[in-house]
Design goal:
The protein is mainly α. It contains 8 helices and 2 strands; from the N terminus they run H-H-H-H-H-H-H-H-E-E. The protein folds into 2 domains: about 60 residues, lambda repressor-like DNA-binding domains (434 Repressor (Amino-terminal Domain)), CATH 1.10.260.40; about 50 residues. The two termini are about 35 Å apart.
Length: about 140
């Protein structure tokens, strides 16, 4: 993976268009397009700005390694280890349910505050999915 691919991946993960990311970073949308196509590369100060926006290390952004943020505080690591321990105790159905919920939280948190009036949480909930709960063995459409 190269910088251009990592930038595209991070942008799409946040559900931003090239234009929107350009606006957020105070660039023209063509700058993001040029970075993602490999035509141009950002300056060091721009790399730092992009890494800060996506909350990743510069090494991750530049594909030196695949560790998003190696500088996590000890508390975060303990929390993650607790999560990992609890997650491993779940059966496959509950793991899938938890992953769907985590994806929902991720989408909910990535909605831009400026667009909150036109893009609401309800739009996420409008996407119909069928969930099966193990205990009741019934299907519920959300």
């Amino acid at each position: 993976m190269e910088f251009k691919d990592r930038l595209r991946f991070l942008r799409k993960e946040k559900h931003h268009t090239q234009k929107k990311l350009g606006e957020i970073l105070n660039y023209g949308y063509t700058a993001i397009s040029n970075y993602e196509s490999g035509r141009n590369e950002p300056s060091i100060s721009d790399i730092k700005k992009i890494a800060k926006f996506f909350d990743v290390s510069v090494d991750y952004l530049l594909c030196v390694n695949d560790i998003r943020n190696p500088y996590l505080q000890e508390e975060s690591s303990e929390s993650f280890m607790e999560f990992k321990n609890l997650f491993s105790k779940l059966d496959e159905d509950n793991k899938e349910e938890l992953l769907r919920y985590m994806k929902y939280l991720s989408v909910r948190d990535s909605i831009d505050e400026n667009a909150a009036s036109s893009t609401s949480i309800l739009k996420v909930a409008e996407e119909k999915e069928t969930y099966t709960t193990k205990k009741t063995e019934t299907k519920t459409e959300y």
